[in-house]
Amino acid sequence: MLDFKKEDLDTILIRYNVLMEKTMTPDEAAEQLYPKDPLLKAVAEAIYEGEEDDVIDALDELLDAGKDPIKLIDEALLPGMAVVSALYDQGIIFLPNVMMSADAMLEGIEYCKTKTTEIPKAKGTVVCHVAEGDVHDIGKNIVAALLRADGFEVVDLGRDVPVDEVVEAVATHKPAILTGTALMTTTMYAFKEVNDKLVEKGLNVPFACGGGAVNQEFVETYSLGVYGDQAADAVSIANFVLKNGSNMDTLRKEFDVY
Q1: What are the residues facing 210 on neighbouring strands?
Q2: Whole-angstrom Cα distance, residue 143 to residue 126?
Q3: What structural domains and CATH numbers belong to the chain?
């Protein structure tokens, strides 16, 4: 795993933000966050650069050194993506960089799976969908990619998903959270229908909603709604639920944007 603590990361990034215009580049900021072990660092660098072939080559070096394929997911791939996520959270790199890195990391995970019969354990499950009547799925795809990159199993229902299908998926998969995206004001009201049917069935799963048409005021009109302003908020919300539980008052206070 990476050998820096959160307070070390904060110090590094604060220093980076202060000195950004004078001395440092995003590459230099990433350099300070990489693992010290040269083989693990090679994986992290390849993920940061979004180079899928280089990720595989770096993993092969570790496998040749006798490393367990499944342990490499936790020890090399996820820490490499953590560097990218930290820089993105600080506004140092941007979403296209994150998407390229996520694709490279996911390719690495799939490669590790081919080297063993052991099934890696996901940290939790999240169900994702685009509201019924809405075919705009770019936001949902980004949410799903970021969640997978953070170690979650994602049940991706796709776009224009009927309300009953969403509720059935939650009942079947028992996710940590449900996510929904909507681009149009005419489709976002499906979220309220999903919410009410979940409550009716006793499925009190936090429902993280976002998208171009959606705002916090609307989301908090229904009991399970938590507003996500950015795609990465879904990852933060899911991790918060795993660590702290699903109390809605606590969740909303934590993720209120105003």
Answers
A1: 181
A2: 10
A3: 6-114 (1.10.1240.10), 125-255 (3.40.50.280)
